[in-house]
Amino acid sequence: MSFFEVTHLSLNLGEFHLKEVAFRLEKGDYLTIIGPTGSGKTLLLESIIGFWKPDAGKIFLDNREITDELPEKRNIGIVYQDYALLPHFTVFENIAYGLKKKTRTGITEKVHEISATLHIDHLLNRKPETMSGGEQQRTALARALIVEPKLLLMDEPLSALDPQTRKNIRSLLRQAISERNMTVIHITHDLDDVWSLANKVAIFQNGDLIQFDSQDEVLNRPRSQFVADFIGASLFKGRVVSNDSELTKIDLGGIQLYSVDEAPVGSHVNISIRPENILISKDISGCISARNVVQTLVKDIIRDGITCCVQLDASGIILDALITNNASDDLNLQPNDTVYAIIKGSNVRIVSAG
Amino acid sequence: MYKINWFKSVFIFLSYVITAMLVLAIGSLFLVPEFKDVLNNLKGEEMRFSLQLSLITGFISTLLVIVFALPIGYALSRFQFIGKGFVKTMIDLPIAFPELVLGLCLLLLFGKTFVGSICRSMGLDFVFTREGVVMAQFFTAMPYAARIIKSTFDYIDPRLEFVSRSLGYSALETFLNVSIRLAGNGILAATVISFARCIGTFGTVLILAGGTYMETEVLPITLYLNISYGNMGMALTSGIVLVIVSFIAIYIFEKTEARL
Description:
The structure holds two protein chains of two kinds. Chain A is of the alpha+beta class. Chain A contains nine helices and 20 strands. Chain B has one domain: MetI-like fold.
């Protein structure tokens, strides 16, 4: 049995619902859950912690079924987006609150230790309302971590913070979690959380768990258009036209691409290409190791921060390439320019073959 | 040129008119009697009895009201249960009920039904007794307290309680450590309003406990009995005491409401 397991969990609260959700985590796994608002993510967390009784299904933690256990008996911690700090307590009292229930000794030392780790040791006498969002979130995190829960649940813990604070707290979070080898389920809308914290990813849509895989699998092999759109990958339908010992050739209608993944000749496949894996060049005079070099037309250039998304039209098939603004400027890219899209065979991933 | 905002002006004018009328009405209660007559009346045996009984029954009733209103207000705010809508309507109903009708209903309940028989067999008789004063005050004030406390819990984020539970505290411990602590101002407001309602209850007390001279005579009954006898001095003194109690209650309520 896995360290944490949810089997066929269903719950209907009218507006929000979960349908037959099932997944497993091992000790130390960091799962991020992504999906649109209202897709049942928070409901899943609150079912796991025991605030909602599922209509069907079971929950197991550390070789014990906890489906019907009271929340206070489960040893599961929770951190909310808006911190949920007890306003009538100081920072010290908030952090010590859970610990006081477990032990009567060493409370002060432990509070000081964890608050030093999270850089809030100078705030212990303050009331939550007098602190910034980042400070409050670190307090909430300290309060959850200090009792060493078997499972830590986090509901968008970084989304109310400014980008720099989010980056800092993400780094502290990664350090604190890995030091304790803690198992975590973390709801987020920020893909940076997914790529920098998680080793497993779950995607929810309308109460359904539509993909649960390792971070690498989700990143490179989204199983549906919905997932591909959500994680920013491009998904194409194609047919395998040849398959030699090393490369599979896939016809996408207008263009043909090589992939290192295998699939039977004649089968219809979905292939996924991540935008950051497409290189752009105006000139291909030399020999190139990449197996796919496709002539395209620049359709549009959409700048976003330090990067830009270049939409390339390859005989009617639109490829999105993510490059830096510097690269775009060096290439002097303009709409309607003819450029080459260069993609390694290992970056053309066959998602499904049928 | 400055343009008059008629919409705003009319609304504020109406507020001033009604406030002025209330100030005049209440002020006349203080201006009509002589101050020394009021003092003499306060020292009288009947007034001392009435004031003492009002305070004692008011405190007991208020305590009972809060003891019941806390769990009722919390249940209505937090839990889903069968018949919740009906329970809420019934608890609120006495707010809209004429006090005399509520008193009549309680008189029938404790006088003519098995509930009254059971209570009497346990030594509790609520009909035309001082215990009846407490019961009448309790049912009159209860809906107000339950409403205020429910609204207070509605404003407290239930996730604060979720977090407390997740940190190992039971539902009762969480209720005591988190919910009640955060609802402090609301509970104080409910207590003050309940006390004012208890002290001022007339119709329900009159029907259930009877308006017996120096027996079940609380301040509103003193006012009523003395008006009936034509003793305006005593009636006005009771009125002044009731107004002062109400004023203090509303003042505390306004102060605590601002902090809710």
